[in-house]
Amino acid sequence: MALFGAPIAHEDHALRACYAALAMQAAMQAYADDVRRAHGLALRIRVGLNSGEVVVRAIGNDLHMDYSAVGQTTHLAARMEQLAAPGSIMLAAPTLRLVEGLVRVNALGPIN
Predict the structure, then answer these.
(1) What is the pTM of this model?
(2) Buried-exposed string 62-81: b where 16+ CB fall within 10 A, e elsewhere
(3) Among residues 49, 34, 50, 42, which one has the least CA distance to residue 89?
(4) Contact of 49 with 91, CB cutoff 8 Å
(5) What is the rounded CA–CA span in Å between residue 78 and residue 47?
(6) What CA–CA distances, in Å, run from 32 to 18, 24, 36, 39, 89?
(7) Residue 9's pLDDT band (boundaries 50, 70, 90)?
(8) pLDDT tens for residues 51-79?
(9) Measured in whole angstroms, how far is the alpha carbon of residue 65 from the centre of its chain?
(10) What is the CA 112 to chain-centroid distance, rounded?
(11) d(Cα 74, Cα 53) in Å, to the nearest integer?
């Protein structure tokens, strides 16, 4: 899980998350091609994005800091990942509203 906006909030956090997801897919595709040639295996990842408020706690010391985020927002992001087709990125409605007009998306309609 990647968390955008902690410890410093960014107005474009949703767009940064979209760019990161696209970069992840591109990097995985290059690696997947190598794995397919070397081992004959198909390798793809799913990415789910959601935006909203989360409860964040800092874990660490003076040398290293990690964040743990919990709540409905992170749960829905995980659900988006589960629902995404292999090799794709699925955005929840709150993220879509924040990046509308900035990224190209294909509407999938409601998902149960």
Answers:
(1) 0.84
(2) eeeeeeebeeebbebbeebb
(3) 49
(4) yes
(5) 9
(6) 21, 12, 6, 10, 17
(7) confident
(8) 998 888 777 777 777 778 888 999 999 99
(9) 21
(10) 20
(11) 9
